[in-house]
């Protein structure tokens, strides 16, 4: 008797495969070895190989680190299955046409709310499932960013300081400040709206 198919899990696995292939193809096109990429992001060669094959979880901070090494914006990996009207492309993002990233094993999903990737800032909506957290290594970006807690509770660590934020609270982080986020709730999602400066290469 065959097991029932969970379409949501299937979609997530497809995201893993799609992004893994993009990483592999871009890495090879740039002449970067698995070993070099693994060393640069502080992970094992085996882990990077599994990511490229879509069989290992890929937290957003790790994808950001890979993006830095491959010299692309993290938004390069976002996708959408919906079509936008051509006259809206540079101005509007419909709720059913957001580009998204959603990986198994992380409990974190992200949606790109900005209509253009070439502007001075990006809007990204992050949903942390109950008890989900960013990678164990504190994240550092090359640009400033700010966030607004839309719903739920967010534990935010910036350097050695730790904060608990609730719906309606907001924050700002300098690019050289390592930071870490976590949803401490075991019952409810935490939703955060981020404003980021896109990385320029």
Describe the protein in words:
25% of the residues lie in helices and 25% in strands. With 201 residues, it is an alpha+beta fold. α2 (34-41) packs across α3. The radius of gyration is 17 Å and the shape is globular. The protein starts with 6 loop residues before the first helix and ends in a 5-residue tail after the last strand. The model is unreliable at 1-12 (pLDDT under 50).
Strand and helix layout:
Elements: H1 7-29, H2 34-41, H3 45-52, H4 60-70, E1 99-102, E2 108-112, E3 122-128, E4 145-151, E5 153-158, E6 161-166, E7 170-173, E8 179-182, E9 190-196
Antiparallel strand pairs: 1-2, 2-3, 3-9, 4-7, 4-9, 5-6, 5-8
Structural class: alpha+beta
Q: Tally the helices: what do you get?
A: 4
- Chain-averaged pLDDT: 82
Could you describe the largest sheet, including whether it forms a barrel?
Answer: 6 strands, antiparallel
Distance between the ends:
53 Å
Rg (CA only): 17 Å
How many domain units? 2
Q: Based on Cα principal axes, name the global outline.
A: globular
- CATH hierarchy, class of the largest domain: Mainly Beta
Runs with pLDDT <50, length 5+?
A: 1-12
Number of strands: 9
Oligomeric description of these chains: single chain
H-E order: HHHHEEEEEEEEE
What's the CATH architecture of the largest domain? Sandwich
- The CATH superfamily of the largest domain turns out to be Jelly Rolls
> Which range does the strand content fall in?
15-25%
Q: Give the % helix.
A: 10-25%
**Major beta sheet, strand line-up:** 1-2-3-9-4-7
> What name does the CATH topology of the largest domain carry?
Jelly Rolls
